[in-house]
Design brief:
Radius of gyration: 20 Å
Distance between the termini: 60 Å
Order of helices and strands: HHHHHHHEEHHH
Structural class: mainly alpha
Number of helices: 10
Shape: globular
Number of domains: 2
Strand content: under 5%
Oligomer: single chain
Amino acid sequence: MASNILGKISKERTISAVILVIAAFASILPGGIILAVVLYGISMVGFLELTRACGVRKDQKPNTLEIVGLAAITCYYLVTYFVQDASYAVMVILLAMIAMMSVYVFGFPKYHADQVMDAYFALIYAPVMLSFVLLTRQLDDGIYLVWMIFISSWISDTFAYLAGVMLGRHKLAPVLSPKKSVEGSVGGIVGAALFGALFGAYLDSTLGQEQYVMILAVVGGVGSVISQVGDLAASAVKRNHEIKDYGNLIPGHGGIMDRFDSVIFTAPITYFLITILMNGHG
């Protein structure tokens, strides 16, 4: 019985993973409005998963804080895609804080301060950080460089798992994630760095340049570290709130936050590292 259940879960995870990869290619390759809309949808769902998990919502219907958050996400993505000016994006984020605090003040004592802080946290955590997938795609050679976000997370996970199985001895975070090991963590970092270097060599050869090998090796290694922090952070939030998964949207994986927890962290760090290192190289 148990083996049948495990087999079903494994099959669901595999099918879901294949669909996610296809969806990633179908949205990232064309980029533009298609990618913006996909990220917007993922951000909306991720935001609501977080607000529900953190207790911002007390019943089934979205409350005023969540509605303000959803409106802010909409404005943020419109500004990010059409205006492409960071100062306006920051303005939206700050106005969202003011709007949530206004709901808190004028509705007092309907909402607790913790709910306001959690709602704003959810806004930054998923929607804003995920938007850096779009921003990375908009960089020069972004059609290639954007894949470093996934190399730093999903490829890192694969190498970390293999290294952990073969060499794992010392626990990385024994209370939070007993199965993760220091050896696995190092394996993930080394694997992502090597994969980044190989990807950089491919890009240099394809694009006729001599800059990406070291840059993408650094991005892969650092991104792997950040990816693992993101994975553990999402687990910590679930532990604090005593839930198994953020949702059930993706069969075999859980919710958006369960599948994209590491990508959410690697997206901004990939964008900033590439921007900084490319400017330094130039």
